Amino acid sequence: MVEEEEKDESRTLRFSPKLLELLAKFQEIELEDVDLEVDELELLIQPGAGVVAPAKAVAPTKAKPTKIIELDFKPPIMEYPGKIVEVKIGATKSEGGTRGKTVTIGGEKFPAYYLFEGMMPHLPVLSLDVFDTKIPLAKPAKMHVEDVLEDPAAWAKRSVEKFGAEVVNLHLVSIDPMVKNTSPKDAAKTVENVLQAVDVPLAIGGCGDAHKDLEVFEKVAEVAQGERLLFNSVTLDMNIKRTAEAIKKYGHVVIAFTAMDLNKARELDRRLYEILPKEQIVIDTTTAALGYGLDYAFTVMERTRLAALMGDPELQHPMSSGTTNAWAAREAWLKMDPQWGPRELRGPIWETVTALTLLLAGVDYFMMMHPAAVKTVRDTVAELMNTSKADASKIADWITMKI
Amino acid sequence: MFEDIPVGVGVIYEGERIRKPDMYIEFGGPDIEKKFELTKVKGLDNVRDGEITIVGPDLKDLKLGGSYPFGIYIEVAGKQLEPELEGVIERRIHAYSNYIEGFMHLNQRYDIWIRLGKKSYERGVDSLQVIGKVLQRLFKSELPIIEKIQITFITDPKKVEEMWVEAKKTYDARDAKARGLKDEEVDSFYGCTLCQSFAPTHVCVITPQRYANCGAISWFDGRAAARVDPKGPVFKIERGELLDQSKGEFSGINQAVREKSLGEVTRVHLYTAFGLPHTSCGCFEGTAFYIPEVEGLGVVHRDFKGATVNGLPFSTMADSTAGGRQVDGFHGISIEYMRSPKFLQADGGWSRIVWMPAVLKERVKDFIPKEVVDKISTENDVKTVEELKSFLETKGHPVVQRWEAAPAEAPPTEEKEEAPATPLAAVASMPIASGGFKIILKKARISAKKMVIRTVKKKE
Amino acid sequence: MESTPKKELSPIDVYKLLPKTNCKECGEENCMAFATKLVNREATLQQCPPILQEKYREAFAKLWEMLKPPVKEIVIGSGERVAKIGGKLVMYRHEFTYFNPTAIAIDVTDEMLEDELLKRVRDVENFTYPYIGQNLKLDAIAIRSTSNDPERFKQTVKKVIENTKLPVILCSFNPNVIESGLVVAAKNKPLIYAATKDNWKEMAELALMYDSPLAVFAPNDLKLLRSLAKTLLEFGVKDLALDPGTVPNEGLGGTISSFTMLRRSACREEDEVLGFPLIGVPLVVWSNSKDMPEISSWREACLASMLISRYADLLIMHSFEGWVLLPTVILRQNLYTDPRKPVAVQPGLKMFGAVDENAPLLFTSNFALTYYTVASDIESGGVTCHLLVVDTEGLSVESSVAGRKLTADKVAEAIKTTKVEEKVKHRNLIIPGRAARLSGEIEEATGWKVLVGPLDSSGIPKLIQDLKAQPPKA
What we know:
- The complex is a heterotrimer.
- By secondary structure, chain A is an alpha/beta fold.
- Chain A is 32% helix and 16% strand.
- Chain A has one domain: TIM Barrel (Alpha-Beta Barrel).
- Chain A contains twelve helices and eleven strands.
- By secondary structure, chain B is an alpha/beta fold.
- Chain B contains eleven helices and 18 strands.
- The longest helix of chain B has 24 residues, at 157-180.
- Chains A and C meet through helix 8, helix 10, helix 11 and helix 12 of A and helix 6, helix 7, helix 8, helix 9 and helix 10 of C.
């Protein structure tokens, strides 16, 4: 039996009335100069019941460590057989367009922000939504653009200059036959106006009507030839062949959109590959708001990215997210009991948390609404990518921090 | 595509019902004996594309509110078409007919029941030509492998009767052929990823003798779908080599599942619930489950409510096999597979089945071998595994022979010197072994220079 | 890339090691049923009295190994309210599901005035938000000793545990302070935060003496963290929780990386030394004392969300703002939803706007995503109507029609149980466009007149508008 000395002066032991309880925990205790005064002391001695056995049921018992056992830590780095393609959006003068800058997304060789496996090749792109006609917006979002709601060019300009949009998503909702039924020609004119108003690349959103979207996309693609616009989006319900051909002919890129179904995403990509090279396709598997399906969105995206890295040849694309959908959550826009804070904070934080969650799933292209959310995501990404060794000392004493 | 058609055409009209007072005319249905719809694949030279023929009176010439015998005869041609695909194409007459506003089509083959609503007639659907046009356009746009299509509507009662006989012969021949087709005889199978599921690594392998888990797609359906839409959710799997006849292992299938599951699943045995069973997604019609006490398999289908003989309901067992996993002893299946001669053949087929819901038994009764059909219990015969055991013994179910053959269960292990770490979290609930003694000191004062207290290990 | 094969466990593998007595003491009909439940994590080994016997020791141990999660489950607290943290079987929720939602602890200090202290404790305990039939709550109180005074700490701890049933975390790096807290709180099995390279031995002894779980803190040094964990395990401490350091700002990347590496080490590399729950401390954002409280709160909400996504099993937070905690508890609930089971809402009759007996009636499935989308479209379109939520077992309209879970009979049943015929004068039912196939059958089964609605619920407002202009014949 190995003896262990517990010196009195260490004062790590106290005697409490529940003497037995304490003593039962230890294998052996040795005390010096002991004085015990008891009313009744019951010592129950049992054959080793195995009730509280030492870690290893092997005699003799092991010594307790007296100093830290030095172990190594090997970062669990994995090699991935697959890689995400890179997609460029926008074109400068020398490339046939008129943009001052372009953006590139994708290229990942490991999952999102697994920084122990390498550096993320590109920063995610933060784009802001602009609509070509007045639409109902939640108050916290509306207040920043109230005066330009009916002027897409001005709205786009503000998004870039004031809110730091790297790309402008121009949603041509007015083309919807049920809204204004704007003609492809007029829609193309709006696109031209916005192209002139800003220097950044442009993404063009349709209205959801398969036929109309196709007509308008074809016209816009032609008119904006060379600009390498991002078309949002092509779906399984549309005439995929025609859409892809227009994209190809005029040198644009497209978002392949499916409703949270990996198999459908693969199918859509398969069909697009007949016409388009992979580098012209971005995947969007749908974004649902925090509290209203975000977990589905997150998991489908995470699975998509992991499958792609594991070699699935039909999913190796950068991913986009309609993060503005976060505003569909009632908690984002509803006036709630004061306990839940003002909408002015709740709404933007709703969009922000939605975005950050999906950032960690691998989203490369964010379509957003609120400037505060955009700024937070940008700052967060900058922090994540900061390679300087962080100073842990400032948090080492967090317990005693006075707030 | 349908601008010239006087009524709407689209999916939203699919479920329409036309009631007797609202109908202009009825074809087939329960009051008419002879009615049929038939599709035949012909050579490209034998089909006149776009032609619509009416043998007998047209709608205008028939009495308002009347019921008449009827036949639809569709001839199609195309390089990729084969007679095997006739049934698949024929089934679409039902769907496409229903897309027409005010036109109702129920059932199939010699059971069809068709009604045209008065309103649609008044709006201009006054000739079967209109129906024919819509059908042709839908067939060609949805199934581009159809290069030529010709439709004949028969309303002449004598002609209907004549052709009905031919049609019946065709149906019978098809059924015989379909059932006779063996897995070993074909050179390709079909993989399907249609399930809306949380198992995107799962793929159903559809063979002539093993229907898709959902029960909706036969090998012929798969073949047609893959032809029509090679980039779609159903794709061809080269069968490769037959590696194991009894268990149903094919090298082509192994390859396909390996690719599809990104290496998770590398081998599949088609006809067994043990070892490397075919995976399931989430929409299978039923589950086969192992009942170890009787060395047999139970089968339960989705609609069965409540606990099965082993105390678990369908849903709990479904959880065990869902999600694209290969789980020994739990296996998602379709009801049609139960009618197949290859049904769980590696495990003993029907002679290994010991329990199934009564209503399910009725459905597949004709395919259960006579010698075991009465020895398989249902919820009406037994409610627990104990009862099941007696039942099987009494009836002399073949599975009883396995009970003698199986080795006795290993006795619970004695405690060994090198026993692995004692279970830790169970500490609180572990019973305290008896033995030992007590020392009781009352009103004591103990002074000691040194006090050592240590626990003593029990001598082995 | 899957981290463990635990999900491939077959009930048969488990069954082979069970006593096979079919004694039913576990509450199941027979051992096979119990084995199935064990594999699905709907039952625990402890529920089987026979297997706890000596003679089954080896089988028990084998089963334990087979079933034990790569990340150990630690229980903090005792009695009515405990916080179970860890117990994770997989790294990614889609591989199976997550268990034990991240516990959220709110801090108090031992220098707070009594009123303030008690109010905060009460508020934390009473915090609740009703969401999809659950009440989302907070889970623990983290008592920080800012005074570093053992007596002060002891008093605070005493007051806290007298006023709440919530589990507590005793926060101090000073073993004397911790000990004084343990003296009064031992019965409550608090989490001791934390052992470091400087105090591990004393903390270990306290942990053993008071049988309390012990946190390990080694900021930005995974080698040290692992070494400490090993040392403590060898020392005899069984229940650990690991804090690799939550470093905000420029430390964010490293923090996220650390959490990821630790979880992967436990789940994929099966490193038992690191197989313990992870602690995140969003509270650290408050160290930027120059920031306005709103900014710190905002940053805390963001950091908390990222840590929940990246494997934190316990969070220690400071902000008590509703707008910070609401997204946090909802995100947690979302990520810990079992992805294998479709989320369903309660079926029944929902009313939107000021409905009367003439308001239109629509129906939809009870798949949560569908329901919320439809409800949202109705609300944002300002539509006044009744919405009948039919039980499709959590499947969407399209799926449930295809899977024959949404049938005309189901709709008829829903109409009957909700007694909607007493609430509405007309008999016009608007059905989802994707259920068009059932229109005729529904008319027959219910006796109502069916109008096929749009394929997407976004078209509902327009449809209702059109109907108002041209009402259907009754």
